[in-house]
Amino acid sequence: MGFTVLGLSGALSHDPSAALYIDGKLIAAVEEERFVRDKHAKNRMPYESAKFCLEQAGITPADVDVVCIPFAPISLFGSKARWHYAKRYWYAPDRSLDALLTGNRRFKRYRKKILWCLEQLGFEAKKVRLEPVEHHLAHASSAYHCSGFSEKTAILGIDGKGEYATTFFGWGENGKIHKIKEFYDPDSLGGLYGAITEYLGFEMLDGEFKVMGMAPYGDAAKYDFSRLAKFENGELVINTDYANVIGFRRYKEKGKGYYFSPKLIEWLGPKREGDIADDPYIHYAAAMQALFEKLALEMIDYYLGDILKETGRLAFAGGCALNVKLNQRIIARPDVKELFVQPASGDAGTAVGAAAFISVKNGVPVEKMEHVYLGPSYSNEDIIAACARHPDKPQWQKIDDVPQEIAKVLVEGNPVAWFQGRMEFGPRALGGRSIIGCPSVAGVADRINEQIKFRERWRPFCPSMLDTVAPQMLSVDHPSPFMTFTFDVKEGWAERVPEVVHEDGTARAQVLKREFNPRYYDLMKELEAMTGNGVVLNTSLNRRGEPMVCSPTDALNMFYGSDLQFLIMEDILVVKKGSL
After folding, report:
1. Is 21 helix (H, G, I), strand (E, B) or coil?
2. Catalytic residue list
3. Residue 436 to residues 4, 71, 293, 480, 482: CA-CA distances in angstroms?
4. pTM over 0.85
5. Contact 330/514 with Cβ under 8 angstroms?
6. What tens digit of pLDDT does each residue of 235-294 get?
7. How far is CA 54 from CA 1, 352, 420, 579, in A?
8. Which of 42, 221, 223, 367 gives a 20 to 30 Å CA spacing to 359?
9. How many CB atoms within 10 Å of residue 98?
């Protein structure tokens, strides 16, 4: 057995996950929510996910050399973090004093919970080598160490907050990460975006994608959001009269406190309710997105501009790295040759980052992350057994040529639940647990929205495409295996595949090489033969508010709880009565 590192995340009460490296190879990575069927799995420990990682590798707790966590104690005198927090939150003296006097209490509580979780898994508490990694260093590692970049690389991390840090600028060379600068709570661009997400009627840590999807429908010039935040002389300052607020400054409604203040309501009007994206809220979304992009690009210029001019390589993680519109603008910069965005950029990805960091620190470099098929897989026998047990008594048949048969069903205008191989790690369905449709069939996106996803009509659906199609359809030639970028779509393609092109003429694309998911690739080849387009509409296999499907039983539950008519799991096709 080689050098084995188990990374466990979940430090900040949401998105617990586990990842396992053996000799620098990522054997497994998975989020707890998929097993416990509770989106974001708030306040849970990564028990099931850690158990899966060990089982996937065929090892026992005794075989693990190091367990690491993406949360570390922050020194009062070795860092400005706690002083900055105390000064900026002067209006909540209880929080300020707490940061100064007992600033690592959260870390101690978390460490205790992790040790308890490890004991339940069969680890001997006294023998566990538990190593903490600073939260933003774990994000940085998940981007840099997984990027495969060999030359000097600029590193960016933007999220809500870790222990105290909210933003990380650094560079990596020869496997070593060097910190240039961090910003600290409450000066958080991610926190500001999250506060406006709440104001726009969505849940923080979940609805930011929805704000980004709403923004193209609005006009950013209609409202000036510059009062909310500024970046001057190398410092980001959030206006805590309006957002990133705590204590009595919070706006409260129905017993719930929000991260924005009553002053924001006075300025912009009542908080948005319901599912309709209308005036003025679409313009607010556009204005927030524009401010976010402007400040992020200014910060990149200031702290990373010189490194980018030198090498052109940038690695990016943290929840804000999933803002695909910002990423499109980063790629467009003349000094950026290639941008690597960690596909699990949110906190779940810090399990990978912490484990990669500790592996490299121990002299074991880690492999480039080329795919995210890192979760459980199931055999035909497992699937047939799940059908036999299911109360809806599924009628199933085994089919021989899955890509060809399913392509025919798609071309006839039917959405299909597609369950193949190992489950994806991170928030994007990439052809492991997907709902798919034929993007040239008019109305298929609306059909999926109304009948299956039950989600806001203005949210875009995305294309997966063959690597041979990407240069024809997308305006920029840049690797995009994980749907972490949007691209302008070339002329003529919006008419060919209208169901996967957004309001602003862009598409958030997955560009697939056959070696990483042969069956999904072959399905697109069949579609290309039948329709002329090697592109498929792809969205995650789940209903609104639920985590992505993990097991065959989850898939069947979701299938029978929706109006979907076709479900293919490996070679087993389940069809509702009267659909064929």
Report:
1. strand
2. 14
3. 37, 38, 31, 19, 16
4. yes
5. no
6. 999 999 999 999 999 999 988 999 999 999 999 999 998 877 788 999 999 999 999 999
7. 13, 15, 22, 41
8. 42
9. 17
